[in-house]
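Entry 14. Structure prediction run on the chain below.
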Amino acid sequence: MPHRVVVLALDRVIPLDLGIPARVFNEARAPDGTRLYSVTTCSLGGRPVRTHEDYRILVDHDESALEGADTVVLATQEPGATLLSTGAIPPDVAAALARIGPHTRIVSLCTSAFLLAAAGLLDGGRATTHWALCEALARTFPRVEVDPDVLFVDNGRVLTSAGGAAGIDLCLHLVRRDHGAAVASAAARRCVVAPWREGGQAQFIEHPVPQETDRSTSPTRQWALDRLAEPLTLEDLARHAHMSVRTFTRKFRAEVGSSPLKWLAQRRIAHARLLLESTDLPVARIATVCGFGDPVALRKHFHAHVGLPPLAYRRAHSAPEPAVAR
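Output returned:
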């Protein structure tokens, strides 16, 4: 059975964001082309939904669809004055959210995090939303740890994302979490979008018009990706870019949204994930190929980023067991 995704559309929904889950999840395919997810859209009472724009959308299902979902996605809805001032949601919305099963995965796109917070689903946890409303989310719901500097937050059962394209990143992250990097990358290609960005990247990166003397760090990033197995240092990267360490770090952050070494660690982890899923290389060999040097360092970084040790990740994603003892 495909994984059942149900998208809840409420009045004032952002149309672009409403289409993101179906667009991404419907492109996640098994090797034989079978869709791995089924996507259903519902509304309260199955009524037409007034969008944030100048038109309505007809929906074929009511909120009872939420009861059979494996994952529920709350499409972006801007919080109204009542929600912002009182932290309360209308009774019919609360009743719809109460129909979600206790083990169902719940995802909010952008400012729908306010709805999850009002329902108590974010209490005591970390969350994010559009950077412009992070302060309001933290003020209205002080029991939520709001992180304004990330694209999305994965708390296991409950996930929140920032605005716009971050919803695509989060959906691709879920595909990768469920079925591995290869399936997620193929879905991204079918959607003609870049492969997933890590959730820890910055939401808002300023791109001022460059001076003619400015140089991009892009060639150095590609140079580093071609040399992941080497023990690259910040000085090595700056030297390749023909910049001082300080200038290189500043320009790198402006272009990428994270520090050079954090980005490099994320790329190494991403490569390790792909190798664990698609090869039978021993963990020791993967550690070397990805630049961690030894299996202990790989396990430490992998667990910190992914939440699982390498072998548990390999088993969870049905990659072949390695033939050589570690």
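The radius of gyration is 21 Å.
Filed with the rest of this week's runs.
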